[in-house]
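Q: How do we represent a protein-ligand complex in a form that can be generated token by token?
A: Start from the inputs.
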Amino acid sequence: MNAIEIEQVVKTFGAVRALDGFDLTVGTGEVHGFLGPNGSGKSTTMRVLLGLLRIDSGRVRMLGGDPWSQAAELHRRLAYVPGDVTLWPSLTGGEVIDLLSRMRGGLDERRRAELLERFELDPTKKARAYSKGNRQKVALVAALASRVELYLFDEPTSGLDPLMEAEFQRAVGDLRADGATVLLSSHILAEVEALCDRVSIIRAGVNALSGTLADLRHLTRTTVLAETARPADGLTGVHGVHHLQQHDGRVTFEVDSDRIGDAVAHLAGLGLTSLQAHPPTLEELFLQQYGERLEP
Amino acid sequence: MNALTGTGHLVRLVLRRDRVRLPLWVGGLTGLTVVSAAAVQDLYSTPVEIAAYRATVQDSASGRLLNGVPYAVDTVAGITAYEVTSIAGLVVALMVTFTVVRHTRGEEETGTAELLRSTVTGRHAGTAAALLVAIGAAFLAGALDAAVLWAIGLPGAGSLLHGAALAGVGLVFTASAAAAAQLTSSARGALGVAGAVLALLFVVRGVGAVRDDWLVWLSPFGWQDATRPYGDRLWWPLLLVVALTAVVAGGAAWLTAHRDFGSGLVPPRAGRARATAALGTPVGLAWRVQRGLFLGWAVGLTLFAALFGSLGREVVTLIESNPEMADVMGLSLDDVVRSYFAYVIPFLGVLASAYAVASALRLRSEELGGRAEAVLATGTSRLAWALGGVAVTVLGTLAMVVLMGVALSTSHLLLSGEDALFGRLVGATVQQAAPVLLVASTAFLAHGWFPHRALLAWAVFAFALLEAYLGELLSMPAWLADLSPFRHPAGVPVEPFTPWPLLVIGALAAAAVAVGLAGLRRRDLSSA
Ligand SMILES: Nc1ncnc2c1ncn2[C@@H]1O[C@H](COP(=O)(O)OP(=O)(O)OP(=O)(O)O)[C@@H](O)[C@H]1O
Ligand SMILES: [Mg+2]
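Then emit the structure tokens for the protein with magnesium ion bound:
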């Protein structure tokens, strides 16, 4: 059974269609990256999953239940960290952690102590006195201290320093080892690359793409630099070649990753003297996906 | 760049943000003055009516408590001033307090001021802009007040002085709010401090007026009365206004310059590392969030009730000093004391409903502040979360009326040595819980369906206050006045107690809460 199934969900705010026929499937035990440009609908999806927003149409199942009508029961089995944590200014971090864990249905004392240590968090400070990153850590500890099946993270590491970011990645690794499911929305591509089994990219409320990172790489283009004895004019005719540029016998172009064989064969026929090819970096991959559409 | 650079831009920003609020305050106040002043001209047009009015107010303790010392009430102009001055002063004081705190400490707390401070703005520009706007609004209110009183046919010079004295009250409380905003690190705390100062000064003036002594000179509301606009026309009390404003505003500026941005006077302290056992349920959380609100109001309202109770004795003194008056009216002393209490107890109820509305609206601020989201992402259902808030409002209200009832009865007992009324005064106060909760239930109702509009519940409170304060003067039609729930519980100790009105009012309140909860379960959760 899948932990999350979202089918053709539409959610509008007045004239804005925040989710516009959105689909997403997250398998149980999977760490799933959730990417997309600002305002594309990631937080809206999270809030639909939490039963805070009511969808206009479509179907949502989470942990086998309906997030809207069974919100409280399902929430005992999940934990959530928002990207912009607001806390009760007069409560201390320790009190907030206890409060939220108790309301979720209990916390693991040993894990609470260990997480406080790992995240170097002082639980006696009042929330209004915490720095942004430390407020974020309060929410993280409150979520991670409960042992649940599903973790919903909406940009959970915004404001964390690199050491704490590494701690977060370790903690997610532990969750994965325990068999928990994680939906991680993030703009930090290295984090996604390090943690996620599969990713989905949302654009303007529509699922633009889902798959493993290897699948995604395959869907995109490789950059090739070559030197040939004879001019490489004929390359324009090869299927899947884009952005061809030539000067003094040097040629650079991009080629769809599944067409690279044809292109190299063609180059070989022209007297290939040197060849470099590099797969798309993650940044290139996302820039292509985030853009309105792939260029021809 | 100096400390005031950028004030002009900030003034425009404040005006832009308050383009609805300020006109509502000033327009509402002016409208109220017009209506009450016109009513006075109607009611007191003959010498006989004027003489009767004079005879009543001279010796009315509740009148003096709320409206101060009556001056020149042998003219229709003096009567008009006596009826409109006090409430206008209160409204202006509240207007400037809310405006100043919202644009100083409020901005600092939410962080928007930080963005502004990073631009080319001086250290004092933010405070200065808020003060300028508040003072401008107070002067506008004063000018309109003078204009409408004059237009209604009151003497011009007196009307001008009346308007100036009104603006003067605004001036003093603008400075006091600015100082309060420096003391605490939260806008709520600042409002609490400024509100407590305001209430205290109002009460000091009232007590001074009842006892007819120097206490009135300790309060800006007393100075406002002391100008006697339609009697001796004294301008010099306004010098006191200017002097006090300058001192307090100077103090506020000094505090601003000597504290860190975002902090108050009290340095933050470490708290508990673990939550107590009580913090872990919706009720526990709601209580924790509202503890300060409850305690602040409990202290204030208990003092108010004790004060109202203690004046039962002054009522007797006033009557004894003028025995023929009581004879004329055919009343025994006992009757006068009883009707005094029957009048002031519902008034205390109206004041308590301000607490209850503030408490009920905490659900809204938890939601819009994004904190409800954290709770609702746990195993707590919306219904449980909201019921936690409802429970705290209901229990808080009950505790509040019991405290007030005991304080009122005890102080009456101690000062008059009269124990016959004790139980009935406690009961009369406690039964106000029903109408108080009905007012609060409108906040739950509105929040359930339209969280962004839930502040409208304050309008319900404002109506009840207006009805209690001015209902008779305005000769509100009965159907309109009867919309105030405070008119329906039995008028103990004058009338015998009957439970029916309380049951009906309680049922209405429960129904309103239920409808609100139904709405809450249907809609999207809002943020900011
Ligand atoms: N309560 C709301 N009222 C109106 N519009 C909203 C509301 N919440 C979200 N939207 C709109 O829905 C769209 C999706 O917003 P959402 O917050 O889901 O984006 P996001 O993908 O989380 O963006 P970011 O990366 O910036 O966090 C945006 O156009 C946003 O303006
Ligand atoms: Mg978001």
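The pocket of magnesium ion (ligand 2) is lined by residues A 42-43, 154 (CB under 6 Å). The first helix of chain B runs from residue 7 to 17.
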